[in-house]
Amino acid sequence: MYVGTEQRSVPPTPNLSFPRKRESRCLIIIELWILTSASMTPCGRFKTISLPCHRNRLSKIISRLMNKHFLINTLFLSFLFTHLAAGEIKVFNDSAKPVKITSISSFNFNNTVYIDALSFAEALSLKASLSSREQTVTFTLPDYRIKLTGDNHFITCGGKPYNLLNPIKLKEGNLYLPAGEFIEKLGFAFPGKLLFYRQELLHLPRQCNIAKIYSSRQGDLLYLDILTTEKVGSSCIIEQDRVIVKIPGGKISAEVWKSSALPAGFSAPETVFSGDTLIINLKIPPSAVFASVVDLADAYGIRLTAKSAGLADDKLKQNLARVRSNWKFDTIVIDPGHGGKDPGAIGPKGILEKNITLDLALKLEKILKNKTGLKVVLTRNKDVFIPLHERGKIANRAGGKLFISLHCNANKDRRVNGFEIYFLSPARSDQAMKAALLENAVVKYEDDPDKYKDLTDENYILLAMTQSNDVRLSEEFGAALAESLDNKTTIKNRGLDQAGFYVLYGASMPAVLVETAFISNKAEEEKLRSKNFRQTYTEALAESIIKFCQSKE
C-alpha cells in the first residue's frame, strides 16, 4: 500500500476463503463468536472496536458467510439474534402504593430473557444484597431467603436447592437471572403473585387472579389474550357488537388491568361483578368478527381470536357458530326461597313459605328430569339455611344457564292476591320495590349482612349494561313464565316487573324470581296447601322452561 511516496508495511491479509469442510465452518462460527463477544456490553449491545484489522476481519467473515448456503446463513442470523438481542422489561408493581411502574434493562441469550437481579429487586421494592467477593445476590423476603450465585444453575430458597435450566449469569460484577424460568419456579416465595409475559413483569396482590389483556396480530387475525395467574373457568357470549366473558371467582388489580393494550377501534373493557363472578364486556368494532375462544398455549389465560369482517371465510363462520352453540340452555338451577332458620312469610293458618317453595322445587325438578335431558340443580333440597350470595355461587359453580328462584308473596292487606315475576334491574314501581325489600330482608339471618350494602341502583344499572344479553333473556323468560301460569292456573296475573333482588344479583346467567302467590291471602294460602294445585303450578312452570330452552337451541 502506498501513501504519497512512502511505502508502509502492513500485516499480511489473512486467507478468508470459505472452507469446504463442515468442521472448518464450525471453527469460523466459533471465531466469529469470540470476536463479537469481545465487542459486547453485558446487556448485549456492541462496543466501539478501535482496531481496524479486528473490525475488518469481523466484517469479512460476515460477508463470506452471507454468500454461502442458505442453511449456514440461517444459522448465523439465528446465532446473532438469540445471543445479542437487548431491550427493556416493563415492571408493574401493584404491591407498592401508589402502584410503581418502572423499566429494567434486559438481554436475550439462547432465546431466554435475562434481567439484572438487583434492578429486579428494586423494581419490586424488595430487600436485596450483593456480595462481589462471593459473586452472589441474596433476596430477603418475608418468608424466604433466596441466594443466587453467578454462572451457576443452582439457587437456594429457604435452604432448599433449585436447579435452573438456564444459569444465573455474571457480567462485569452484576448477576442476571433468567426472568421467565426464575419466576415460574420461585414465584411462590415472593409476596403477592409474579407473572412474566411479553416483556412485562407483573407483581399482583395475592388475591388477584386476572392480570390484563394483551393484543397482537398475525396476518388478518387479531388475538386478544386475557392473562390469568392460574387456570380459571370461564364462559363467553359473542354478540354482534360485543363479547362478554364471565369468570367465576375472578379478581383484578384495577391499576394493572387498566394498562390493558387493545387495538384501534376497541374501547377500554368494562368490568363488573355479579356475585363472585367477574364479567368483562368488550365492545367489538364493525371491522372485526370474533371466531373462537381457547385457552392460552404458553401461559394461563384465555385467547379470543377475531378476523376482519370483510375477510371472514366459511371456516371462520363455522367456528363462530360452534362457539355460540356452546351457550345452550342445558342446565337449570332452581332456588327454593328461604329455609332453615329463615321461615319466610307465614300464612294466616301457619303455613311456612320455606316449605312451600321447597316442595314446588322438588316437583319441578322431577318433571324436568322425566321429560327432558336437562341437567337440574337445586340450591337446597332440604330444610337448610343458604345465604343469598351463596345461592348465586351454587348456580355459577354448577354451570347454570337459567336460574329460577321460587317464593311466596305477602302483604299487610290480606285482600291482595296473584302471582308476580321479576328480573334484576332497578325497581320501576312501588310494588316492585316492596317485593324486593321483603325478600332482601332475610339478610338479617346472615352473619355479614353488610356485604350487600353496595348493591345500589347504580350497581344494577351497570350490571344491566354489561349483562345486557342476560337481562334481555331474563325478561323474555319471565314473560314466558307469566303467560304459562296465566293459562294453566287460576291465580291472578299481576305481571312481569323488575327490581333489585339480592338473590338474582349473584347469578351470572338469565335469572328470574317467581312470587307464586300471596301466602298472606287466605284463599291463596289454601291453594298453596293443596298438593294438586302445587302439581299443576309446577307443570305450568316446567312447560314454559322447556319451551324457552327449545326456542334457544
Describe it.
By secondary structure, the chain is α+β, with helices and mostly antiparallel strands. The chain has four domains: 42-82, no CATH class; 87-204, Copper Amine Oxidase, Chain A, domain 1, CATH 3.30.457.10; 210-325, Immunoglobulin-like, CATH 2.60.40.3470; 331-551, Aminopeptidase (3-Layer(aba) Sandwich), CATH 3.40.630.40. Helices cover 33% and strands 31% of the residues. The strands form five sheets. An eleven-stranded mixed sheet has the order 6-7-8-9-10-11-5-4-3-13-12. A six-stranded mixed sheet has the order 23-22-24-27-25-26, sandwiched between helices. It has a four-stranded antiparallel sheet with strand order 14-15-21-20. α11 (457-466) crosses α12 (468-488). The radius of gyration is 33 Å and the shape is elongated. The model is unreliable at 1-24, 34-54, 76-84, 311-315 and 451-466 (pLDDT under 50).
Strand % is 25-35%
Please identify, by name, the CATH architecture of the largest domain: 3-Layer(aba) Sandwich
The coarse overall form would be: elongated
| CATH hierarchy, class of the largest domain | Alpha Beta
Largest sheet: 11 strands, mixed
Distance between the termini: 87 Å
The number of domains is 4
Q: Strand pairing plus helix content: what structural class? A: alpha+beta
- CA radius of gyration is 33 Å
Cross-sheet strand order for the largest sheet: 6-7-8-9-10-11-5-4-3-13-12
Q: CATH superfamily of the largest domain, please?
A: Zn-dependent exopeptidases
Mean pLDDT level: 77
Q: Which fold name is given in CATH as the topology of the largest domain?
A: Aminopeptidase
Helix content: 25-40%
Contiguous uncertain segments of 5+ residues: 1-24, 34-54, 76-84, 311-315, 451-466
Compute the number of strand runs. 27
